[in-house]
């Protein structure tokens, strides 16, 4: 008789207590009546490789990777998808039967699925997207926007060098403008994306003048705590469609869950409620 093994997955970060992923994956496991466990793991950087190599032997089929390990894991993985290579970071690992570690980045996918669900009328080819911030999250957003054929990405970041580096990596479609110029380029945008940590609970507000914003522009924020950032509230007041950041977190988790537990989970209002609990 073959032994039935219950698949184990989880999330590795340092720290990990704030992660919403366990609630989310456990909600899906319960909803679909699946055997499986999803375990949060606090792993210090110096132990990352050893832990990753030992998890498959302990019955793990894969893990999510979060701050601060998303870049470091690229040095450990045996196989890396093109999109993870381009972004320079991975958030989803699959432990293959031959012991190899396969690394993917689903953040750009999560961003785009969330945007499509929240702003179905947004046409990527209708005009430029303004992206605020040039950190790790911005790289995933920019790669997703390039993939769907946005004609121009106007990129601005407090530290100009990081924005220039992104242009070097993603090409001529990116126009870099100074951080203080952000308000001046807003009027060109069909989409505005905040990828900075400004507006997050405990952080300063993002202050960008939205006066020139076009009525049919869509405004989205990667910040999801609070759900309605100042940027989104002001954009709503200006009559624009807005999309909060929680959906990106939910959608980026879908490919990993499907691969590990064999069921493609739905992202709906019950999923949102479970992640917020
Ligand atoms: P993430 O992976 O979430 O993108 P990150 O790589 O640390 O995290 O990037 C954080 C982003 O928020 C960057 O664009 C950062 O700007 P810098 O590159 O200049 O650091 C931006 N950010 C954070 N605090 C900021 C602040 N007080 N003012 C303006 N931008 C800020």
TrEMBL record:
Ranges for domain SDH C-terminal: 245-273
Catalytic residues in the record: 70
Pathway where it operates: Metabolic intermediate biosynthesis; chorismate biosynthesis; chorismate from D-erythrose 4-phosphate and phosphoenolpyruvate: step 4/7
Residue span, Shikimate dehydrogenase substrate binding N-terminal domain: 11-93
Binding-site positions, NADP(+): 82, 133-137, 157-162, 222, 245
Role description: Involved in the biosynthesis of the chorismate, which leads to the biosynthesis of aromatic amino acids. Catalyzes the reversible NADPH linked reduction of 3-dehydroshikimate (DHSA) to yield shikimate (SA).
NCBIfam families on file: aroE, PRK00258.1-4
PANTHER family assigned: BIFUNCTIONAL 3-DEHYDROQUINATE DEHYDRATASE_SHIKIMATE DEHYDROGENASE, CHLOROPLASTIC, SHIKIMATE DEHYDROGENASE
Entry protein name: Shikimate dehydrogenase (NADP(+))
UniProt organism field: Falsiruegeria litorea
Originating gene: aroE
